[in-house]
Amino acid sequence: MPHIEISPPLLDSGEEGVVRPTQVIVDLEALAHNFQEIRRWVHPAGVMAVLKANAYGHGLVPVARLLAHLGADYLGVAVLEEGILLRRAGIRTPILVLGGVLGSRIPLFLKYDLTLTASSMETLRQISEAAGALGRRARVHLKIDTGMERIGVHAENAERFLEEAVRCRHIHLEGIYSHFANADLPDPALTRWQWDRFQEVLGFFERHSLPMPLRHIANSAALVRFPETHLDLVRPGILLYGVYPSEAVPRRLSVRPAITWKTRVVYLKVVPQGRGVSYGWTWRAPRATRVATLPVGYGDGYFRALSNRAQVLLRGRRHPQVGTICMDQMMVQVEQEVPVAVGDEVVLIGCQGPACIPVEEVARWAGTIPYEVLTSINTRVPRVYRGPETLLRVLQDRQR
Ligand SMILES: *Cc1c(COP(=O)(O)O)cnc(C)c1O
Q: Which CATH number fits domain 28-241: 2.20.25.100, 3.40.720.10, 3.20.20.10, 3.30.930.10?
């Protein structure tokens, strides 16, 4: 399978051998398939692909290029800098910055043609003022708080907020949105309550015979479970990457994980019976035991909390991680009959032959959710993109 390595250039000399043996492999066909599966499911609604936090660890710019090429209607990022990176990479698809806005940064949104989230009366006025000063109209989506209590104007106070937005001359009111707090929990009651509140707010446009802006509220969990919430755009994050938000979300779309996190054995030895391994000797060899050392640790995002809990795949079988995980290295016990050599491939997340370790399982071992595992794989780990030539070419193309 052809592949290219794109980010990050820890060393970008292009020399043979500078790509770390510890890598995240991103399967472009899986990403493309997931996107198309979601698009089919939500049609005629459009898709705002959520690319925050380095595209959930998959690499911001490459994933954006791919999804823009496949026809994503909108891209969603969390912070201004992510939007700027995409524009500097030549991406022309509309981009909404989902997070709150500080007044001093508004001119940069305008400079890079990024859509702003207005989440208060105050921000709305600041945006209008900044846009007016530049003789521009700012593209804005209003944020309504229907129950998340994060950012946004409370639904019960939305009337004045909408009136003001409609009145501001330098605001192009393009969209209005809210966010579900509990769409991935088994009980749908709170989601229904938030949905009803959002509907009431949207009634404003009909009552005043005003054109309806783009409406969006559904994250991955809601778009799967509550098709009535699709509206004009859906905002999938985790599902695009082939992972379901929680057990409570039925597997109605066939998506598949796009990430494989791999490394290689760098050292092998036999630990004598009774000898402890790693900091604090939290694991002791019950008998003379073969132990392999891997060049990956919590400094790469493989949580220390996984110590003595995780398993890895080696020669197509599971082997337990043993001893405290270090910043840059960790040890695994080699199961008795398995032949292992230095240089052997080890899979931390993903499949090796018939065996798989899903990200959900790693999250459970660490006491967290798949979102945190994926977004914690840090930029020291190179991302390698695999897929057919046609998709690889898209990643190198600046004109999207
Ligand atoms: C992160 C985020 C999403 C995507 O959530 P998923 O559960 O990953 O689908 C959608 N909307 C907003 C506002 C977000 O912050």
A: 3.20.20.10
Atom 6, ligand 1: residue with shortest CA distance:
237
pLDDT in tens, 292-347: 999 999 999 999 999 999 999 999 999 999 999 999 999 999 998 999 999 999 99
- Report how far ligand 1's centroid is from the alpha carbon of 41 (Å): 18
Evaluate: CB of 236 within 6 angstroms of ligand 1: yes
pLDDT per residue over 230-274, tens digit each?
A: 999 999 999 999 999 999 999 999 999 999 999 999 999 999 999
219 lines ligand 1 (CB under 6 A): yes
Cα distances from 306 to residues 194, 256, 364, 368, in angstroms, run: 36, 24, 9, 11
Give the ligand 1 atom nearest the CA of 371: 8
From the candidates 52, 177, 241, 262, give the one annotated as an active-site residue: 52
Taking CA atoms, 359 is separated from 26, 368, 381, in Å, by: 14, 11, 17
Residue 53 near ligand 1, beta carbon < 6 Å: no
Name the residue ranges covered by the structural domains of the chain.
28-241, 259-357
Is the pLDDT at 202 greater than 90, yes or no? Answer: yes
Q: Is the pLDDT of residue 179 over 90?
A: yes
> Among residues of the chain, what percentage have pLDDT more than 70?
96
Listed in sequence order, the residues at least 6 apart from 269 whose beta carbon sits closer than 8 Å to its beta carbon are 290, 291, 293
- Looking at ligand 1, which atom is closest to the CA of residue 235? 10
**Within the chain, what is the greatest distance between any pair of CA atoms?**
80
**Res. 5: pLDDT tops 70:** no
Query: Helical H runs in the chain?
Result: 28-42, 52-56, 60-70, 80-88, 106-111, 121-133, 158-167, 189-207, 220-225, 359-366, 370-376, 389-396
Q: What backbone torsions phi and psi does residue 78 show, to the nearest 5 degrees?
A: -90, -40
Tell me if residue 279 is catalytic: yes
Q: Which of these is catalytic: 74, 279, 298, 302?
A: 279
CATH architecture under which domain 259-357 falls: Beta Barrel (2.40)
Please answer whether residues 59 and 4 qualify as being in contact, where contact means their C-beta atoms are separated by less than 8 angstroms: no
Q: Are 294 and 277 in contact, with CB atoms under 8 Å apart?
A: no
Instruction: Tell me how far the alpha carbon of residue 182 lies from the centroid of ligand 1, in angstroms.
Output: 12
User: In sequence order, what are the residues at sequence separation of 6 or more whose Cβ sits closer than 8 angstroms to the Cβ of residue 394?
Assistant: 65, 66, 69, 400
